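Explain my protein.
***
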Amino acid sequence: MSDTIYLTLAALPFLSIRRKQGVLVKMADAEAGISKVPREKKGRRKAADEPETAESVPSKITERILKAAQQQQLEEAEDGESKTPEVEEGEVEVDADGRVQIGAEVTDEDEAAQAHFRSGQEEPKRLTLADIIEQKLREREASTSGGVSKVQSTEDPSEAINPQVVRVYTDIGKWLSTYKSGKIPKAFKIIPSLINWEEVLFITNPVEWTPAATREATKIFVSNLSPKQAQRFLNLVLLPAVREDMAVNKRLNFHYYEALKAATFKPAAWFKGIFLPLILCPTCTIREAVIVCSVLSKCSLPVLHSAAALVRLCQLSGHSWPGPTASIAIRTIINKKYSLPKRAVSAVVEHYKGFIEDEREMPVLWHQSLLAFVQRYKLELSQSEIQTLKSVMKAHPHKEITIEIRRELAAAEDTRTNKVLTGLAAAGGGGGNDPFPSLRQFTAPAAMDLS
């Protein structure tokens, strides 16, 4: 015991010296700007990280996320859709009433021309969402055993659904009829995942939705439905609401305009459910065409979908022509400056060729669409197609626009001639080995005969 105490007392001077040395070293490091942090052991760091990772993302949720991401990638690859509808131009102007300032430049003459060309055409009966639901219920009940119908066609389609579900979605529909902003109920967001989503949607009474509610519903349904199902939603819910608002107020509510832009998330559904049904409808007005074409011009859409819509519009010419609204749509697609397939360019030429025998006077919008086409795609026209367009201008001249069209076609022919001469000169080489000396002296006339 005494020896231990003696050794401890003997070591005290050395311990005090070591402490003093440590303090001096720390002071020197601090003056030099050196900071020494004790290293953390690997085992302790792993133990601290692992519980946080396990708690933040469980394995089951990770698997669900990966499956959802793979499914979304497959859908985008099949449909050729962009992740978000990209806006190419600035936002539209909105007045104090919350309505977009588009279509104000439409004149009464344009509307009169549209009415003149649509005279004698009958509008086919438009199916509403209620008609579709009743038809599905009749088919379902007809296929049941015994052929006994539980729900007659004149009864409310909601009777085939659980009364508690009907009560919930009826209340949601009343809430959507006064909706202005805020979160949408989760019960409404799950409708696209239901098998009978159309029947449940019918219970909410979309006709009474506010424009803001229609905008939010469009985002939800277009994002979660397949292209074909989204097409049905757009055609049965959004399009009638837009047309009704335009018919009453002559200008479109800004929320409806935003809904039209959000619908471009599914390009195929937008063209088949909104664009083509409206433009080809016999009762489509110039203002309605200008509105929907404004959305087309401002949003980035795949070229193949736009080219297919252009070919569909160009199939109608002559007496089957829908009117100036089709010319507005054709001009809008052309002005997007797509690299169109040759088939689409040829379809436009054939479209105007169909008017050669038409004795009616073409409106200004028709001439403007022809001018836009020649300006954008004159270098892709063959010589025979140029001659066809010349024949069209002979049959339907315009005192101002036709001159511009002739100038564009002349420039295209000059460009083609210069390319031929350049190719011949390159093939002939230099010096005295020119096999075509007469062609080198050829000079294109200043004003070529376009008749």
In short: The longest helix spans residues 2-32.
